Amino acid sequence: MEEPQQSSPEKVSALRRLVPQPALCGLLLLLALVFTGSYAVGAAVDPVAPDMQRSGTSGGGGGMDMDDMGRNGSGG
Q1: Mean per-residue pLDDT for 45-55?
Q2: Nearest residue to 43 (alpha-carbon basis) of 33, 35, 55
Q3: Interatomic CA distance for residues 19 and 11, integer angstroms
Q4: pLDDT value at position 71?
Q5: With contact defined as beta carbons under 8 Å apart, do 63 and 53 qualify?
Q6: What stretch of H or E contains 16?
Q7: Cα separations in angstroms, 19 against 8, 14, 42, 62, 69
Q8: 0.70 exceeded by the pTM?
Q9: Closest CA to 52 of 63, 41, 40
Q10: CB–CB of 74/63 below 8 Å?
Q11: Cβ atoms of 35 and 29 closer than 8 Å
């Protein structure tokens, strides 16, 4: 039987530098779960502003009328 070859300390230290710390992996996993959950909840509920259209059609529908802004009768 052959004895298993021992890894050198240089290889072990190089591997430890390449692998992120467990706390960082846990944080990234938690962030992924939170964003996935929030996306799922947002997709399941109705839209917040149903009058808003995703299509990029041009026109005046849905915009604010800015003509009367600033006119409060003071001549400004």
Answers
A1: 73
A2: 35
A3: 12
A4: 60
A5: no
A6: helix 9-18
A7: 17, 9, 34, 51, 58
A8: no
A9: 63
A10: no
A11: no
